[in-house]
C-alpha cells in the first residue's frame, strides 16, 4: 500500500546546523525509532536495523538508506529500502531547508512510503496512524536535539 | 442386535465416535521418529525480481539444516510443476515472484519453530516490478506481461464459449424488455478449520515414498507424483498416498501446493521424514482461492414475462497461474449451467481467463465447478427482470420454470437435465414461509418507511462429474470406484476411491451397502484415502461422491448379490430363478421359511461354495455415470434493514432442497445447514481484496470475516424428492446445494427491500457500509 506524507516545521537553529544533523547518520539515528545497529557503508549511504511495530506485528527491520541529489545545505533526497518480518518498506523522501530572516530554519519534507507484506496486510488499518505517529516523534526529536 | 437400516434413515454418523472424543487422526497428529520440519519464506511483493537470496544467517541458527531455493530444485527439474489445468506453476521461483505470499525458499530444520526462525532469517533482495491486480487491466494491450515463461506474450489465458452467439444477439434485440447488470462475485477462501500439510517419508532401502497429505484426491495425487518425479526414480507402484482424517476440504485440498513438493524433495534428499504444515495466514494468503468472476449479464423477455434470451460475458481472474481444478474440457467449469431452472429459447455464455499478480487457483469452493457463480448470476438477474416487469418474483419464476413433464430437458447450453420439479420446491418453500402474508406485511411496512425484503433463489445444480466421454482431469476419466469384501462371518469391508473431509462417507456408504445387501451398517467398515488399499478414484469434490462413488458401491453390492444368489440356490437346492430377495436374505418363492441370510451365504462362500464357482464374496465396480445429476431447490429469505446503520438482519430463511432419493436425512440436513452458513458468508461478510500494490487485504482471521453461530440465523429446511432416473439409487448429491443457492436469496432479499428506492444491485458481500451509502444517496438516511 502506498502512503504519502508531508509537512513543514520551523527549527530554532541555523540552517547549516540542521543540515549537518540530518546528513550525519550518527546524529540522525538518535531520532530514528529503536535503532538496534547502524553501519556506515560509504558517505551518504548507511544500513540501520530498527525495531518496528505495527499492531501486533513487531520485529527488526533492516533499512538501507541512501542520500542523493545533495544541494548543500538546502536540499536532499533520501531513499530507504527496508525489509523484515517478511515485509518490505520503500521510502522516497525529499527534505528542503530554507533560512529565515530571524535565523531559524524552515524544514519542508515530503515522503512516499510503499509497504508490502504482512505489515501492510495485517496492520493495514493501523499502519497510517503508526507511521504518522513515528514521523511526528522523529521531528519532535529533531527539534529537541537541535534546539537544545 | 445390529440392524440393516439402508437408505432413508438418519443413522448416526459412525465417524463421530472418534471426532467428538478428540480421537481423529489428522495430518499434524502424525509424528515419525527423526522427522524434520519445513517452513517457507514468502514474498512481501506481489511482483518482483529476486536479485539475491542469502541463507547465511538462517544456516547459523542451530537446528537449521538447509535452505532450499528454486535454483536448488531446478537442478532436479522440480522448480516448476504442472497444474491440473494444463498450465504450469512455480514450486520455488528462480528469479521472479508473481504474487504476495508466494513461496520463495524453504527452510528445513530439526524442529517446527526452529524452521520458522530460519525462514525469518533468510534475507532476500527484490527489485519491485509493476503490479496488475485488476483482470480487466491485465487484458489491456499495454499491461505488463506477467508470465514471461509462456510463449504467448499476453495475460489472456483462454477463451471459452458455448451457445448460439448470433441467435442470442437477435433474440435480445427482439425482446420486449431487456435487463443488463455487472455482477462481481468476489474472491473468497475456503478457510477450512485444518490448514494444508503433509508428511513425506522416503524409504531409501525400498525406494518407496509414503506421502501422508491433506488431499481430497489421493489417487490422482499418486499419479501426478509419478508423472512429475518419474525421472527421479519415483515409480507409481512405489508411491503410497495416504489421506488421513481431513478437517474440511471444500475444494481447497484438491490442488498440489509447492509445500508438498518441497517436502517430498527434502525427504528424498535427506532420507528422513519431513513434515510441512501451513499456518493460518499462509493458508488464506497463498492457497487456492474461489470465485473472482466479473460477469456482465443480460436477459431478454417478452412483455408477458416469458424469458427468451440470456447472454453472460465473464472475465475470470485466475491469479498468477491457472491452477484451478476443473475437468480439462471445461476451463470455466460447469458455468454453462447458468440458464438455471428456466426454459430459455436461446443463450450464449463466454468466459475469458486472465492472469493477475494474485495467488493462483480458481478452485471450487463448495460450488461444483463454478455452479455458484452461474446460479448467483441467473438468480440475481431473474429477480432484476421480475422487478423490471413489475411482476412478483415468485410468480415470474413459476411462469418460466422448465415444466416437470419436460424432463429429460435439453438446455440451450447443451446439458441434459435428468429430472426436476421446480414448481413443487418453490411452492413448498412459499407455503412454509407464508409468502402471501409476508408480501402484505412488506407493503404495509413500506407505507411506514420500513425496509423489509423477500428474496427467492430457485437454483439448479449440475453435479456428479462425470461421464467419461467428456470429463477428465489431466486425462484421468472421472469415474469412481468401490470394492466390497464380505468376510466369512458376514461382516464386510468396503473401500472407495473418494475421500471424506467431513461428509460422513463411513456412514452413508455403509447405508448404501446395507440397503443393497442387508448387512447391518455396524458390520461394514468403510475405508478411503489409502492408495495402497483403496481402488482408484478421482476423489471427493464437486458433490461427486454420492452420484459417482455411492453408485459404484451400489453396483458392486449388486454384483455380490448376484453371486450370493448362486450360493443360496446351491445351499437351498433350488434353482436361482426360484429364489426371491428380501433385504438380507434369499428365500424360495412361496416358502419364505426356506431362506438363507446373507451372513449364512457369506460363510458358505468360504466354507461350502458350489463347485464351478469361485470361492469368496467380493466385488469391485468402476462406475462411469451416464449423465450428471441435477439437484435443485428453492430458498426464500426475509430480511429487515436497519436504516440507521445499514445492517441487514435475516429474519427467516427457508430452504427446500431436492437431491433425489436421500441416503441419510440427518446428514443431508447437516450438509444443508453448513452450506447455508457458507452461502451466508459471501453474501454478507467474506471477501479478499488487494490494494494496487497487490497487498492482500483479508489475509488473516482479523480481517477475513467468517460468520460464527452469532451471525447465523435459524435455518428452516425441508425436502422434496425427485429421483434421478439414471442413478442406481435415484440419488443426486447435496454437499454444495446450499452454498450455491443461498447467496442469491440473501442478495435478492436486500435489493427487494430497496428496489422502490431505485436500487437495482449491490455487489456481495453486502456490508452495512455499502447499504448505508446507498440509503444515504437515496435520501433515506442522514
What does this molecule look like?
The complex is a heterodimer of chains A (148) and B (782). Chain A has a seven-stranded antiparallel β-sheet. Helices cover 28% and strands 53% of the residues of chain A. Chain A has one domain: Alpha-D-Glucose-1,6-Bisphosphate, Chain A, domain 4 (2-Layer Sandwich), CATH 3.30.530. Chain A is an alpha+beta fold. The N and C termini of chain A lie far apart (37 Å). By secondary structure, chain B is an alpha+beta fold. Chain B contains 19 helices and 34 strands. In chain B, strands 3-7-1-14-11-12-13 form a seven-stranded mixed β-sheet. Chain B has a five-stranded mixed β-sheet with strand order 9-17-16-15-10, sandwiched between helices. In chain B, a hairpin with a 5-residue loop joins strand 32 and strand 33. In chain B, helix 10 packs parallel to helix 18 and helix 17 crosses helix 18. Classes of the chains: A alpha+beta (148), B alpha+beta (782). Chains A and B meet through strand 6, strand 7 and helix 3 of A and strand 8 and strand 33 of B.
Topology of helices and strands:
The complex is a heterodimer of chains A (148) and B (782).
Chain A: E1 2-11, H1 15-23, H2 25-28, E2 35-42, E3 45-54, E4 57-71, E5 75-84, E6 87-99, E7 105-116, H3 118-122, H4 124-147
Antiparallel strand pairs in A: 1-7, 2-3, 3-4, 4-5, 5-6, 6-7
Chain B: H1 16-19, E1 36-42, E2 48-54, H2 56-59, E3 64-69, H3 70-74, E4 80-82, E5 88-90, E6 96-97, E7 103-109, H4 112-121, E8 123-128, H5 135-138, E9 156-163, H6 165-174, E10 177-185, E11 197-203, E12 208-213, H7 218-229, E13 239-242, H8 258-270, E14 274-277, H9 280-286, E15 293-301, E16 307-317, E17 346-354, H10 371-388, H11 393-400, E18 409-410, E19 416-417, H12 422-433, H13 435-447, E20 451-460, E21 472-473, E22 476-477, E23 480-486, E24 492-496, H14 505-517, E25 524-528, H15 545-572, E26 579-582, E27 585-588, E28 591-597, H16 598-607, E29 618-623, E30 632-641, E31 648-658, H17 665-684, E32 689-690, E33 696-697, E34 715-719, H18 737-754, H19 768-777
Parallel strand pairs in B: 1-14, 12-13, 16-17, 24-25, 31-34
Antiparallel strand pairs in B: 1-7, 2-6, 2-8, 3-7, 4-5, 9-17, 10-15, 11-12, 11-14, 15-16, 18-19, 20-30, 21-22, 23-24, 23-29, 26-27, 27-28, 30-31, 32-33
